[in-house]
Amino acid sequence: MGFFMLPLEEKQKYPMVPGTVQGYGQAFVFSEEQKLDWCNMFALGLEPHYIRNPKLWPTKPANFCETLEAYSREIRKLCKNLLKYIAISLCLDENIFEEMFGVAVQAVRMNYYPACPRPDLVLGLSPHSDGSALTVLQQGKGNSVGLQILKDSTWVPILPIPNALVINIGDTIEVLTNGRYKSVEHRAVTHKEKDRLSIVTFYAPSYEIEIGPMDELVNEKNPSKYRRYNHGEYSKHYVTNKLEGKKSLEFAKIKTATTN
Ligand SMILES: O=C(O)CCC(=O)C(=O)O
Ligand SMILES: [Fe+2]
């Protein structure tokens, strides 16, 4: 929570410039008319190193950078392990994702949702699926319940469990597994009296690689649902469009021909 408690002028030393995705501010803002989400974000690219913008790494709180580095190293190990287990669950070679991903891209976004006098009028974060392969989400201790996932057309709250992380499947795993794993649509709601913090790590393949359903998961019974595309292009598409449910995945879907 430390960074968000700093005075505004301190936080504004690290601005998220429109058209970019790192720094302090609001992402996914594309028009003057858009109703904004009730959320302040602070986002940083972590790996590989060339995506880092050192000017955006804050000098306060004093231990911020080393804490983030240590945290990110552990989360990276976790993501690599989770991908192994996903591969095993699909009867694939356990290293298949690691070998395919190249030097994986890792970014962190801290979302701070202030208490909101009218939670009925505004969302904390609009419905979306993540563009990543995996997302690891940590909710602040004792915070209000904010995260909800869409299950059978109903928004289900994800109650924070002390010392537990929430793992979300992102669009990239949905595509790679040809829909065997589905990315989860989720949103954050605000609370009348309580603020909330979430620390979210996005883990994704290198921007250079080509993505598409894996050969092992495509057959006559399960034809390819998604086309092949460059992951960097998808990431760009994702961050230059507003959050709108699972709409970003339309980019990858093979459109079935209709007769009229
Ligand atoms: O704050 C949350 O629980 C949701 C955050 C989220 O979905 C995101 O940052 O992509
Ligand atoms: Fe998300």
Q: Would you mind describing this structure in some detail?
A:
- This protein is of the alpha+beta class and 260 residues long.
- The chain is globular, with a radius of gyration of 19 Å.
- It has five helices and twelve strands.
- A hairpin with a 2-residue loop joins β6 (147-151) and β7.
- The strands form three sheets. The chain has a six-stranded antiparallel beta sheet. Strands 4-9-6-7 form a four-stranded antiparallel beta sheet, with no helix packed on it. It has a two-stranded antiparallel ribbon with strand order 11-12.
- The chain binds 2-oxoglutaric acid and fe (ii) ion.
- The site of fe (ii) ion has 3 residues, from loops.
Produce a short descriptive summary.
This protein is an alpha+beta fold and 260 residues long.
The average pLDDT score comes to 93
Largest sheet, strands/sense/barrel: 6 strands, antiparallel
Low-confidence runs of at least 5 consecutive residues: none
Number of strands: 12
Rg from alpha-carbon coordinates: 19 Å
The share of residues in extended strands comes to 15-25%
Overall spatial form: globular
| Distinct compounds present | 2-oxoglutaric acid, fe (ii) ion
